[in-house]
Amino acid sequence: MTAQAEVASSLERYSRQMRFSGIGVEGQEKIRAARVLLCGCGALGTVLADTLVRAGVGFLRIVDRDFVDLSNLQRQVLFDEQDVAEHLPKAVVAATKLARVNSQVALEPHVADIDWRNVREFARDVDLILDGTDNFETRFLINDVSLETGIPWVYAGVVGSHGQTMPIFPNESACLRCIVESPPEPGTTETCDTAGVIAPAIHMVTSLQAATALKILSGQRHLVEPKLTIVDVWEGTLRQMNVSGLRERGDCPACGSAQRRDFLNGGHSSQSTVLCGRNSVQITPAEPSCLALEDLAARLAPLGKVTRNPFLLRFQPRAETQTAGATSDEFQLTVFRDGRLIVQGTEDLAVARSLYARYVGS
Fold first, then answer.
1. For residue 40, is it within any domain?
2. Does 180 share its domain with 286?
3. Best CA proximity match to 322, nearest among 313, 310, 314, 331
4. CA-to-CA distance for 229 and 245, rounded, in angstroms?
5. Which of 25, 54, 131, 218 is 20 to 30 A (C-alpha) from 279?
6. pTM of the model
7. From CA 95, how far away is CA 86, in angstroms rounded?
């Protein structure tokens, strides 16, 4: 087979996409050469990853800190009940399944919590960053690294039946902190715990987000308008706000005259995070480590039920080894090799930190 015939054969799977006048053969080739960082692989991230891999993006780096839970299956499209039973990390499951969808795409999964210490490395050598996260602290971190590196990103968020998305071109358009200067105070905004979330809202927002990504990756960023799009699938509404004038005011702490990188410099880093909709808390060590899960499993085995796979360890303390008043099924601890711990069964940060110190070490 000639080189030309090989190229034609490799493009056949994208034939319907290339027939769309907005992309064409030239646009498809640019998509195939593109490199994308996906931050988070939950509800937003799984739909984005699936869409981009099927569209033929050349390289996709997937970073997610969590493992598959039963409550994820209602809206996180790459996971199934077997993944829940095996307690597998989301990034690993996603990459495995996406590799079967399109072997032409280079997939790079990372089981990690994105923070100020590693985000620069994750953003290295990519053309676009996509927001698949569920918290504003990480979004502000992405915003900072985008401004620092000049890499565009697409923000998105969904709660209940409504959501929003916005493209951000560093030093050209308004950034996220032009719109929301700081993370909302706890208890002041809806979350998936208080308002729930429905899958159609996820798909609506990620469809808009993915369409924006394809415009950028196919070399047509001039078609992307600097607008915040807000949708509600239950009410059947869609509205857009032109935010281009916000940057011109010059008072944004991130992209205005101050040019501060509060989140990228670690000034707003949190080591404890309540996970939305999970009745769980994540504890992150001050310094990343490389735990020997085998040794930890042997140490914890006399204290309760231990199961593990190559990526993580799960521990259910026996009643008599838990804190006073705790029942045997109250807490479940999941420990990752990088030292992170997710405590299921509480949203009390003090309780979670106490369990971390008791079973993993301070």
1. yes
2. no
3. 331
4. 16
5. 131
6. 0.85
7. 16
**DSSP one-letter string for 279-301:** TEEEE--SS-----HHHHHHHHG
What pLDDT, in 10s, does the model give residues 271-320?
667 777 678 888 887 667 788 899 889 989 998 999 999 999 999 998 75
Please check whether residues 214 and 121 belong to one and the same domain.
yes
Calpha distance 24→18 (Å, rounded): 4
Residue 195: other Cβ atoms inside 10 A: 12
Q: How far is CA 74 from CA 10, 101, 117, 137, 300, in A?
A: 34, 21, 33, 25, 33
d(CA 305, CA 230): 46
How open is the CA angle 154-157-162, to the nearest 5 degrees?
130
Higher pLDDT, 248 or 264: 264
Whole domain around residue 238: which residue ranges? 13-248
CA atoms of 260 and 277, how far apart (whole Å): 32
Cβ contact 274:193 at 8 Å: no
Largest distance between two CA atoms of the chain: 72
Question: DSSP letter string over 42-79?
Answer: SHHHHHHHHHHHHHT-SEEEEEE--B--GGGGGT-TT-
